[in-house]
Every structure is written in C-alpha cells, then in structure tokens.
Design a protein that fits this description.
The structure is a homodimer of 367-residue chains.
Chain A: E1 13-15, H1 24-32, H2 41-57, E2 64-69, H3 72-83, E3 89-94, H4 97-108, E4 112-117, H5 128-135, E5 140-144, E6 146-147, E7 152-153, H6 156-166, E8 171-175, H7 187-190, E9 194-198, E10 209-214, H8 216-219, H9 233-240, H10 253-269, H11 271-289, E11 304-308, H12 312-319, E12 324-328, E13 337-341, H13 350-364
Parallel strand pairs in A: 1-12, 3-4, 3-5, 5-8, 8-9
Antiparallel strand pairs in A: 2-10, 6-7, 9-10, 11-13, 12-13
Amino acid sequence: MSGHACGPAAERLLFTPAPNPVADPVWSAMRAAADLPSGGRELDALLRRLHDALAEVTGAPRHLVLTQTGTATAAIESAVRATTRPGETVAVVSNGQFGDRIVRVVTALGRELRAVHVPWGVPTETALDAVGRASRGAALVAAVHHETSTGVRNDARAVSAAVRDADPRALVLLDAVSSAGELEVELDAWGVDIAVCGSSKGLGSLPGASFCLAGSRALDRVVADGGSYATSWARLVEAATAATADVFLTPSIPVLAGVEAHLTAVVRRGHARHLAQRAQAHAVLHEAAALPPLFPGDAPPGPVAVYDALDARHLQARLAGTGLHVGRGQGPHKARAVRLSWFGHAAPCADELRRRLRAVATAGAPS
Amino acid sequence: MSGHACGPAAERLLFTPAPNPVADPVWSAMRAAADLPSGGRELDALLRRLHDALAEVTGAPRHLVLTQTGTATAAIESAVRATTRPGETVAVVSNGQFGDRIVRVVTALGRELRAVHVPWGVPTETALDAVGRASRGAALVAAVHHETSTGVRNDARAVSAAVRDADPRALVLLDAVSSAGELEVELDAWGVDIAVCGSSKGLGSLPGASFCLAGSRALDRVVADGGSYATSWARLVEAATAATADVFLTPSIPVLAGVEAHLTAVVRRGHARHLAQRAQAHAVLHEAAALPPLFPGDAPPGPVAVYDALDARHLQARLAGTGLHVGRGQGPHKARAVRLSWFGHAAPCADELRRRLRAVATAGAPS
C-alpha cells in the first residue's frame, strides 16, 4: 500500500467512518480481477490468499471464512439466523449506534432479545456482571468491538470471557467491522465463535462484500436454511468447504480481489508492524485535531475519534475548499459531534495530515 | 461506452453470464466516486441520475427504486419478504435455473409455494393457462424474463397479463436481472409491480448492488420490517423517499456510480438505438459461433445463447491461449452445454468478435 500518496491540497480527503478512501494498489488489483472467470484456479488461489490473510489479521486460523455479497449488517443478520432459532434468546451488549443496530436485527428476526445497554461512551467491559446475567441461557451473545458512533474500543476479550464464564453454551458473536485490520483481533484466543467484518474500512476495499468468520462451535449449530435462501449459512459453508472455489450467488470478485491485495500486503509487511503504523496514524489524527474527545477516557484510540460540541455540517461548510471531509455524529449525537476516522491506508503522510488537520482545529470552534 | 475496445488477441475476453467485463468509462466513474461522501448534494445528484436512467430503460417512471447492497437473489428475497406474509401463497413460473432459484427462495421463506414448471428451453408463455390457475388467490406471482440457463427469453408481458386476468389482486414480480439494459423492458405497460435487477450484466458495473423497482400496488403491501432488518423494505422506502439522498446501510457508492455512468450514457445515446446495438452484438455472437442452439426456437436472441453437446470444460481447455472464456451449463445441462453471453458493453467490435468466435466454432466439436 506504500503507493498511496495523500495528494495535493485540492484533492478530497475523507476522514469519515464510511466510505473510506481506497488505495491505488487496491484499485489496480480490482481492475486486474474484473475479467477473472467466476470459477477456476485463479479464483481458487485468490480466495485462498484472501482467507489466509483474513485469518491472520483476526487471529482465527481455524475459523471458516464465509464470504457474502452484502453489507456487514446483512452478514450479522445471517449469522443470527443461521445459529439461533426463532424464540431463542439472543443477548446484545450495546454502548452505541452499532450495538443498537444489532438489537434491531435481533428484534426483526423474532428472537427473544436481552439487551445490555451501557451508556454511550462507556466501554462495555464496565458492565461484565450484567453481561454475565444476560448470557445465562442465551443461545448467542453479540457485542461490538470498536463502536464507531462514539470512538470507544470495547475490551472484546473481557466481554467474551464473561459470556463463557456465565454460560459456556452461549455462542459469542463479535462485530469486528471497524476493528479487523485496524486493531488487534484474536478470535481464537478470545473465544469468539463468530466475527463479522466488511470489505471496506480496515480491509481496504470497496464496500459490497462481507465476511463471517465461523468457529467450529458456531458451525455445529447451523440451521439448514435458517429461513433465508440468499444468506443461508448451510449453502455458504458448502461453498466454502468445496474442493475448488465455489461461489454461492454472484460475488463481486473485484471487491474481493481488493481485500486480498490490501490484506496480503499487510501480512507481508508484518501484521504487528501494520497495527503499530495504524496506531501512529490515529495518534497523528488525534494530536493534529487538537480537540477534546466527546467522552474522555484513557482507552487507546481506535480508528474513529469523536469530537464534542462540533456540528459536522457547520464544520464541513467551513472546511469547503480544504478537501477535508469529516463524519457527522450518530443517534443522539447527530447534531453535536464530529467523527474523524481514517481507515484502510497503511502508510500515513503525517505532515500532510497535520497540515490539513490544522484546518480542522482552526475551523472547529463553533462561531 | 464508446471508449471500450476489444483489445489485442492476448487479452482475456469473457463471454460468460457472470462476471461480465466492465468498460473503461465505467471504471473511471467508479474511481471518481470512491471519495464521494455518503451524503450530500453530489450523492443526491448521482442517485437521482441513476434512478431516472434505470426507470427509463425499464419503462417505469412511476416505480420507486430501492437500492440494496447485495445480490439480485437477495433482492428478490427481500421483495417476497416485504410484500407477502408467511403462509401466503406465492406462485413461481419457472423454465430454468433462475426460476428454480426463486422457488428455493419462496420455500426458504416459508411461503405457500405454487410452482408452475415449464420444461427447460420452452418459453413460459406456452403455459398461460397453468399460470392463470396458479395465480388465483396468490399474493404474488414471480417469473423470469430472460432465463440465462437456457437462453430463452420469456414473454413477460403475456405472463403478467395472464396473472392480471386470473387474479387482479396478485402482485407480479419479474426477475429482470439479465434483461434490464439488454432487452425491451416495459414494467408500467406490462403491469409488473416489482422488478429486480443487479448492478452488473446489462447495467454495466461490478456486482455488489441490486435494485428493486416497486410500483404503488407493491408499496401498498409492504410489511413493517418483513422479518429482516438489513433488507427491510420499510427502511429502504424511507431512505428512497427522503428529501435528500439517504442511504440505508453502507452502499458501494462506486458500484452505483458505475451503473449511473453506463445507464446515463445509454439514455443519452438513445435507449432504442442501444437495444438495436445490443441485438446486433448478440446476432454477431450467434452467427460467429455457428453452433446449433440447445433448444431450437424462433424467439429473438437475448444476451445469452446456449449451445448443446458442448462440454464447457473441454471447450475452455481448447480455447486456452485465445483469451476467450465461455460459461458452463447449469443444472441438468452442467456437463453438456456451453453458455455464450455478452453483457454490458454497448459498442461491439464485430470483426474482433467474429475472429475470436471462429476459434469457438473450430474448437467446438467434441473430439
């Protein structure tokens, strides 16, 4: 990914949680894969490299990678459908917009919901007792790793351990959409049965594909079609375990090739080194923005930082011409917060970033 | 799309039903849209142009365009979920693999299935009496326009009229995945309540997004969440009717920008002229291939032609080095048919096509 340059000042630079900028080498890989037949040795090799790299950056060498065309939210929905039955209990630990989204998924699917609501901005590991209580008798417990509505990184290991301690039969589902590729993720070591991520953000490609990483305990629970043909895990598992690459429904092979190019480069450079670079990039973002966080805390920064008392529309208007784009707040913080994120690119141009972010700091104070 | 060239002989050329080659101007549009913020005037304008062009090429100025991230099959599933309730009757008219796929969707959703099976290769309009009988009391009747497993173009107008005659309350759903942008589609005039298409094939972009075009009768039936959060039509309708572009879950804006670029160019050039060019391209395919059709008939050629007694694996091996890729048969024809298709590009290089297809004709006879 070293081929990515921040570019001239006039160029648009997104610091929004979505979409994320896509690096030049990823575009090249997508383009090269556009005429790849949807079967055969080349696709086999590409999917194998993609799955290996994804397993490496999520610490999941034994999880099966189920690739779907669709959003990560649809993938979460498919996981709940596949591993639980209507009427069974699903607990959801939420401290933000994306936790609440899982609550809505579980409700729409007619599962018995037990929501553990932790205040926005407070990490979920502060509520381990409540997590344990909600886990008892639950078929599945879902939690978010990096909550992009507030910038809070939850301690997924601690939450997973609390579930396991309370009820070893409950499956653990982790929303790793904003953490995979950006933060340390160790599914095996943390006892996470299912993790969901998407093709964009930390995986570096365009949106359009999503991945469920499924451990053996989750695979043992798979319902035949789960009430869906298009997102049936039974069919996805069949495709994923076929001797040669089998694709279930038409995938966006170029989008997958983009993920493969990004992740293979990450693994080649060294995953630990990559994470250190990402942390440095985010430290630069935080430092250069020089703004108080919405929720003070000493949690290490994740890829998204949230700034209080800043109206994103107002700020965006003042930033017109700088090429900088920042994200609006979500949910209750829609009108009074700015979200500053940087996903995907592995080689930050710190000076250019500082230069541009000075504009944020200058323009930031509401007039 | 006039910027597309067939390229040198060594270049890979796909004549497969999926994936389809993507033209240079479409790639440029995708790339230009990669840093488009997921809200704001630019996205507004892009989606408005996309929806207008899609409505024009499908004859549906009053249908609402619901854009989803996912496969067309998932979009069909969302339409069935949204407009029918579990236990209600859904009739499916099938004469091939893609009709059978809708049968599986309806079964997975627990709707009461009435399947009208027409033999593979026989157009569905030969079974209008059976279609009428199956329609009576059905909440929804689904049919495929161009059946890519056999190359048969069904008379969607006649099928839709038969449904309407038999039961005016039944909604008509048309799988237009392989016909939108390639064949005449007149949803309003034909009385089609819901049509589904995807971002690739005749819409010219990468796979990853899908569209449901919904008429007022369909919108009147929408169930609140339909048993899905991620593909809830109520939420999609809310997003589609918002004053400014509202996106429900993260869309692949570049994929949508690719569709917009392709379709806007089609509309600018003139839709009728575009369809005439597509018919010419397919006539060249048929003529140059010089092979007998799997199912003889006098239906005008659609974008996919199927050739009998040809093993695609065998043929592909003999074509190695020519850069030509053809598709394998499907279902019962997996081992003994070749599917030859050409989607998306509007300016065929007839000579290059003939030159390459002579290789198909020469290599085609099983040894």
